[in-house]
């Protein structure tokens, strides 16, 4: 049974820790949905561009490679590689934050737990039973649970988006290879 919210929020450190983790959780979901939709759309356009390239031999105007190579006169493998690297950097923006959250959220929760347990032990009287101290320790453990609840989706979303970036780079590389082979 979860402890009463008022007990958990009575410690200012718990308020800060749970608030911090709540902000993390909001941004984790925001970044995931924003990047997932954006990368899915981008990959779809690049696949359409690859199909157009295979059919006509020309890179479609919707391709990020087309927009990039139009800016240069010397089209070669290095030019394409630079364009692909620029696309990769753009696609990966924001994903690092998910990795940071996944690795730090459990420690932020653990910090809240340690402070809560220290507070529980400091409030002990000369004669204290387990029935008196257990509720305070249970309150403290909520912070660790919340830290893990934030970290798991952050890590999962990081992996999903990293795979999307890998898929995008694969399609761009196929476009480059086919264009340079003709």
Secondary structure elements and pairings:
Elements: H1 5-8, H2 12-56, H3 64-69, H4 77-92, H5 95-122, H6 130-181
> Which value, in Å, is the CA radius of gyration?
25 Å
Secondary-structure class:
mainly alpha
**Global shape:** rod-shaped
Strand content: under 5%
**Helix amount:** over 70%
Which blocks of ≥5 consecutive residues have pLDDT under 50?
none
Q: Whole-number average pLDDT? A: 88
Helix-strand sequence: HHHHHH
Number of helical segments?
Answer: 6
- Total number of strands: 0
| Biggest beta sheet attributes | none
Distance between termini? 67 Å
Could you give a short description of this structure?
83% of the residues lie in helices and 0% in strands. With 182 residues, it is mainly α. The protein is rod-shaped.
Give structural notes.
The structure is a single chain. This protein has 182 residues and is mostly helical. It has 6 helices and no strands. α4 (77-92) packs antiparallel against α6. The protein is rod-shaped, with a radius of gyration of 25 Å. 31% of the residues are buried.
Identify the notable features of this structure and list them briefly.
mainly alpha; 6 helices; 182 residues; rod-shaped
